[in-house]
Amino acid sequence: MTVGAWIVLSAACAQPRDALPSWNDGPPKKAIVEFVSRVVTTGGPDYVEPAERIAVFDNDGTLWSEQPIYGQFAFALDRVKALAPQHPEWTSKEPFASVLKGDLKGALAGGERALVEILAATHTGMTTEEFDRNVREWIAAAKHPKTGRLYTEMVYQPMLELLSYLRANGFKTFIVSGGGVDFMRVWTEKTYAIPPEQVVGSVGKTKWEMRDGRPVLIRLADVDFVDDKEGKPAGIHRFIGRRPILAFGNSDGDQQMLEWTAAGAGARFLGLVHHTDGEREVAYDRASSIGRLDAALDEAKVRGWTIVSMKDDWRTVFPK
Amino acid sequence: MTVGAWIVLSAACAQPRDALPSWNDGPPKKAIVEFVSRVVTTGGPDYVEPAERIAVFDNDGTLWSEQPIYGQFAFALDRVKALAPQHPEWTSKEPFASVLKGDLKGALAGGERALVEILAATHTGMTTEEFDRNVREWIAAAKHPKTGRLYTEMVYQPMLELLSYLRANGFKTFIVSGGGVDFMRVWTEKTYAIPPEQVVGSVGKTKWEMRDGRPVLIRLADVDFVDDKEGKPAGIHRFIGRRPILAFGNSDGDQQMLEWTAAGAGARFLGLVHHTDGEREVAYDRASSIGRLDAALDEAKVRGWTIVSMKDDWRTVFPK
Fold first, then answer.
1. Would you call B133 an interface residue with chain A, using a CB distance cutoff of 8 Å?
2. pLDDT, tens digit (0-9, with 9 covering 90-100), for B216-248
3. How far apart are CA B174 and CA B196, in angstroms?
4. Which of B 59-78 lie inside 8 A of A, CB atoms?
């Protein structure tokens, strides 16, 4: 092969193939590609320095499925069962008794207080390393109640492609989720290629302690920071320290994050995943107790944010 | 030139030149280079994946000078002077009256309460963007009281080289400082090539507010998290989410950070800058109220941590 032929062939190979094959051709895909193209075009009016290409994603319902219950809550329920032999009193004490009988409705009859008790019993009182191990073991084995697949397989293929596409264009991708940061960090690197230091979430207090001359951090029951709704911009400010240029969510809990992102100068992309696909996933929005999308949906329409219809805009939902 | 000659020449050019020219040849430099070499040697017993090559640095007294007063406190004093016209009552109200007269000792006679009042008046009550601008303007103009240089020139040249050397070897460098995170983030990227999202520090609460339809975060007087002493491991856990393999500090405030780093499995590097150079900088350790190095110095000796003597181990202290 001549050098000339090699150059021609290389150029041909370098033609960009479709980086978002699981997205149907439609307005959302077009808006994403156009936005990225604008901010990476050196010398263009919307060019953004790579260091400022910060993209933030909600997790539950945006990157992975949140129905019928949040993954982290499924973990908590399984931990109650695993810990039950050490707590014989739980068989007659709510909300644990109901959890052990598999009666979720009964368990949650106690409202927020029941929820807090379940979370405290399963998320606190141990070292950060022990908690890490609990999550690691659970996420490697637990199966989604509806599909029987691992939770880390209940992620959205189009969003995985979007994360990769953004990173290939110099973006730094972050998770900004209401979920517990220590629950997510265990598996986000392998699942989304998002390292622990780029995961922002809700945080509990810890206590420094020396155990046999070795320092440990004990997880306390005091919640320190709730990274949801108005907490999301605060979390972005606190943990990332610069304003994102792209934000993706799926519920009213993400509304302030999108507003905060939108309020910066220069090109911005705001996206919402709309769960419209009752066949391939679950159809829900304004009336759902999990991942309610109501006020943010109205605002998205008024302000021209990109609404991604799972049914219409995604060729594939989950990885094959 | 033949291809063979070109390869030979390239190999010659690729010979590593000294990446730490401001470090004298001595045990600390040798220990650093040996540690880095061990953790980057693929297949070696101490190899560490790039993603796990987390290096944390204290800021005050470790990366830049902290004498005669912390840079952030100098900023606060200058802000009191700048704000004085809007606060006529300060001329007769302590600690402000003393600050305005340039009487630092008098200002601090009120102890911690005086300090908190000065910080609250200069660091809170404005939006995060306003505070950002205040710091940006100050850091661009304020001069160090002893040397007359910009504060960002009062950084340690050997440490700048160390940061670059680590990054060239696949490390991710973080600041973990007791200083206010929002004060540091304004200038760390330009000064240390450490981006805002890799700066961990003390944090105040913020309040979300809509002003003329645009969201802002107001800085509140409530301190949320103090990233010092036992707070440093908590900060590392909370913000970074993995255990560093290298930690560098200079005072007892860094002791727990070094202990936490040391407690991980595998190769570790723990370093302390010892301020031994009264001629080129300031000589201080066990008796200093700023940057006291006492218990950590004892522990370093017992545990074989690397103690860097500014006088003996640094060829140059500040950038030329």
1. no
2. 999 999 998 999 999 999 999 999 999 999 999
3. 9
4. none
CA distance A294 to A272: 11
> Are B240 and A51 an interchain contact pair (Cβ–Cβ within 8 Å)?
no
pLDDT, tens only, A124-148: 999 999 999 999 999 999 999 999 9
Q: Quick count: other Cβ atoms within 10 Å of Cβ B12?
A: 8
Mutating which of B218, B238, B256 best tests the A interface, going by the most A Cβ atoms within 10 A? B238
Nearest to A215 among B174, B197, B259 (CB): B259
Residue tagged 């996206």 (tokens)? A271
Residues sharing a CB contact under 8 Å with residue A138, sequence separation 6 or more, in sequence order: A75, A78, A79
The answer to whether residue B244 neighbours chain A at the CB level (below 8 Å) is: no
Shortest Cα–Cα distance, B149 to chain A (Å): 27
E-state strands within chain B: 54-57, 172-180, 199-211, 214-225, 246-249, 269-274, 306-309
Closest chain A residue by Cα to residue B216:
A260
Q: Does B263 touch chain A (CB under 8 A)?
A: yes
Predicted complex ipTM exceeds 0.90:
yes
Instruction: Name, of A7-16, A264-273, B103-112, the range with top average pLDDT.
Output: A264-273
Instruction: Give the distance from CA A30 to its chain's centroid.
Output: 23
pLDDT at B2 over 90: no
Calpha distance A106→A122 (Å, rounded): 18
CB B22 within 8 A of CB B161: yes
Confidence (pLDDT) at A8: 47
Secondary structure tally for chain B: helices H, strands E: 13, 7
Cβ atoms of A93 and A110 closer than 8 Å = no
| Cβ–Cβ below 8 Å for B256 and A208 | yes
Contact A196 B242 (CB under 8 A): yes
* Residue among A250, A248, A261, A255 nearest A229 (CA): A255
pLDDT (0 to 100) of residue B141? 98
3-state class of A308 per DSSP? strand
Among candidates B206, B238, B260 on the partner chain, residue whose Cβ is nearest the Cβ of A203: B238
CB contact under 8 A, B225 and A230: no
Pairs of residues, one from chain A and one from chain B, whose beta carbons lie less than 8 Å apart: 79
- pLDDT at site B168: 98
How close is the nearest chain B Cα to the Cα of A99, in Å? 30
Smallest Cβ–Cβ distance between A214 and the set B196, B197, B263 belongs to B263
- For A9-28, write each residue's pLDDT tens digit: 444 444 568 999 999 999 99
Residues A48 and A39: beta-carbon distance below 8 Å: yes
Torsion angle defined by CA atoms of residues A254, A257, A261 and A263, in that order, rounded to the nearest 10 degrees? 110
pLDDT tens digit string along A83-110? 999 999 999 999 999 999 999 999 999 9
Q: What is the mean pLDDT of residues B29-40?
A: 98
Q: Tell me whether B233 touches chain A (CB under 8 Å).
A: yes
Q: Which residue has the tokens 């009062």?
A: B154
* Chain segment A287-300, per-residue pLDDT in tens: 999 999 999 999 99
Q: How many residues are recorded in chain A?
A: 320
Q: What's the confidence (pLDDT) of residue A17?
A: 84
- pLDDT at residue B13 tops 70: no
| Runs of H (alpha helix) within A193-292 | 231-235, 255-262
Question: Which residue is listed with tokens 């200069």?
Answer: B122
